[in-house]
């Protein structure tokens, strides 16, 4: 299956470099390029991209605002946003995930990592660099204002196994790692993750991470039991 990619960055040279890199992968296709946030939203709608590589700092409409518009549009439910920025700081990580981004990487990422990140995000998984994960956790220490009720009772819809797996997702474990820890098959682990996302109305794994910390299911600095 070919993954359709939209590049959104206001710098022509950077877009050109990403275009060459993305086009080098046989399963990836650059379908359009946007030089500002507003254009990115319009092209996401017209070109039916699967993944948008979104820069944060852009004219007219910044990348975070553009991401919110894309993820809030029901007609674009299948479009995933992977935020790329030179400013991999806590505030941006937190806001990018709250905006609905499925991943966050620094622009210094290695080419092979970027290609793999696009594939990961396209299949519905979340992708955060280790630095971004640390930033996301640190940001929750500042007690962000939740946009919806996030007390422990929100998790009542989950089974005990699903709660356990959501906790592991929040620690950054992949389906394979969760399966190994809990002695499950990877497909079973994925099924539990997908059911948890559906029950909690989460767009993807990144939002599961957010909810896990907001509800207190996982707390920064407190390891999950083995």
UniProtKB/TrEMBL annotation:
Domain Response regulatory: 4-122
Signal peptide extent: none
SMART domains, A to Z: HTH_LUXR, REC
Domain HTH luxR-type residues, every copy: 151-216
Coiled-coil residues: none
Keyword flag Isomerase: no
InterPro entries: CheY-like_superfamily, NreC/VraR/RcsB-like_REC, Sig_transdc_resp-reg_C-effctor, Sig_transdc_resp-reg_receiver, Tscrpt_reg_LuxR_C, WalR-like
Alphabetically ordered keywords of this record: DNA-binding, Phosphoprotein, Transcription, Transcription regulation
Superkingdom of the source species: Bacteria
PROSITE patterns linked to this entry: HTH_LUXR_2 (PS50043), RESPONSE_REGULATORY (PS50110)
Modified residues (4-aspartylphosphate): 55
Protein name: Response regulator transcription factor
Species this chain originates from: Kribbella hippodromi
């Amino acid at each position: 299956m070919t993954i359709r990619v939209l590049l959104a960055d206001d710098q022509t040279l950077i877009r050109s470099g990403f275009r060459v890199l993305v086009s080098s992968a046989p399963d990836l296709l650059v379908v359009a390029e946007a030089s500002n946030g507003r254009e990115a939203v319009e092209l996401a709608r017209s070109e039916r991209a699967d993944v948008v590589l979104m820069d944060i700092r852009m004219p007219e409409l910044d990348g975070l605002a553009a991401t919110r518009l894309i993820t809030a549009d029901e007609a674009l439910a299948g479009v995933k946003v992977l935020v790329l920025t030179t400013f991999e700081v806590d505030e941006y990580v937190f806001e990018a995930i709250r905006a609905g981004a499925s991943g966050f990487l620094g622009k210094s990422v290695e080419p092979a990592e970027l290609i793999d990140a696009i594939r990961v995000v396209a299949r519905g998984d979340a992708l955060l660099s280790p630095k971004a994960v640390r930033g996301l956790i640190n940001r929750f220490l500042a007690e962000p204002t939740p946009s919806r009720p996030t007390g422990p009772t929100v998790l009542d819809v989950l089974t005990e196994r699903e709660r356990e797996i959501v906790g592991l997702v929040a620690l950054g474990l992949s389906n394979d790692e969760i399966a190994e820890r809990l002695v499950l098959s990877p497909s079973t682990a994925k099924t539990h993750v997908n059911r948890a996302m559906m029950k909690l109305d989460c767009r993807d794994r990144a939002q599961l991470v957010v909810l896990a910390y907001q509800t207190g299911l996982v707390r920064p600095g407190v390891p999950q039991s083995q």
